[in-house]
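Supplementary Text 2. Reproducibility record for the structural model of the 243-residue chain.

All settings were left at their defaults, and a single model was retained for analysis rather than an ensemble. We include the record here because the model underlies the residue-level annotations in Supplementary Table 4.
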Amino acid sequence: MRLLVYFRTAAAALLFSAGPLSCWSQAAPAQPPAATPQNTMAQRMQACVVCHGREGRATDQGYFPRIAGKPAAYLYNQLQNFRSGLRRYEAMNHLVQHMSDDYLRDIAKYFAELDLPYPPAQVTKLTPEENRTAENLVLRGAPDRGIPACVSCHGQQMAGMLPAMPGLLTLPSDYLAAQMGAWRTGKRKAKAPDCMADVAKRLAPEEVSVVAKWLSAQTLPTGVKPAPPSGQPLPIRCGSGEQ
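Retained model, structure tokens:
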């Protein structure tokens, strides 16, 4: 618990800092004026690296998602949800609770503009039948059960769709499965109408598992961006920034 309190304090100090950290300024010798700008967004966002990986890439191991390159509107909506408590994760709720809308937009814009490579594809560890089940749900959905294909909302390359649909590829499978489970139980919510809650409740638990593993094992070429708005209505009614 003491370690968690320390992490929160240190991370908040970085995010809100009005200048570079100077814990040892009295002991250090005087330095010439810095040649590079201080207190940049990149410096402030180092607090996010602890969980989300360098510059917003998800870490190779662990639960936390990639945020680099996601649509700015999506990231902004999620930061608002954490601030309001609509979305619950204690560390995030604590970090953003006093941030203004303008600062949340700045954070979202910073990470949305990062153009970083995706990690290499992994072995899916699925049986051929499980692999077919996952691909069918991602690419074609299950229309007889009112389940749209993932690509119809998240883009044909699953890299997201503007203005506010996130990419899903390479996210940790534990994270994906946990989020779907949270929608199924009502622990995770979004602004009404909450379409992902509807989709999650129509999926069987074993389908959630295989789709999460399949998505986590894929990759994309460097430079792939979220798809432009399709101009077509979504196959299921959704609120803004629902992921």
